Predict the 3D structure of the following.
Amino acid sequence: MDNLGCIVGALLYVLASFVFPAWAGWRASQRGFQGWALIAWLSIFIGAGAIGGLLALLNTAEPQAAKAKQQEFDVDGVHYRIESVVSRGEGQNKYLIVLFGASNASTSPQQIDSSRWRARIGASEFLPTRANLGFSRADHTTLNPGLSESQMIVGFNVPPDILQKGTTVRLLIPQNTNTCPSCGTENRPQSKFCARCGSALRPGYASIDLVV
């Protein structure tokens, strides 16, 4: 029993002093808090990993600004998973930021570009911001089949008076459509022009609702 207690104690020490601060630093870095990430990692080398990790965790916690009605969904062979929705900034520089994962559920490479997404609130529609949101994530990438999930981001500059509690934010994600708008012919997936009349096939949008 004494040996078991020593093993458990040693394991807890390793988790608290090394694993926990390393994870807290990685989490802070992913959320754009590079200073707190550095503090968490440096605390490991001075024997204060548990304290440094806890400080980094507490000071980088951000409340959810909105909740997705559907956490996971598929669009054109890409599997999306909404991780969290946070709000940063003040006044006219208020941003609604969606952190999400994307993985390729098809058998061919897929282009992901969240700069083509839209956010609709009532009659207003917002384009993604080009501002630096402070996160170590990309807004576009190429996903090859079978690779692990990529962590991505999209943010919208939304006036704070619009984001009232209970407001629905509709994310619009470009989606290929196979139905010709001119003649109604169903075309093959990924077609850009109608096989019957030659008309351009306009992309549609998949929609996901977020509730503030």
Remarks:
- The mean pLDDT is 87.
- The chain has three helices and eleven strands.
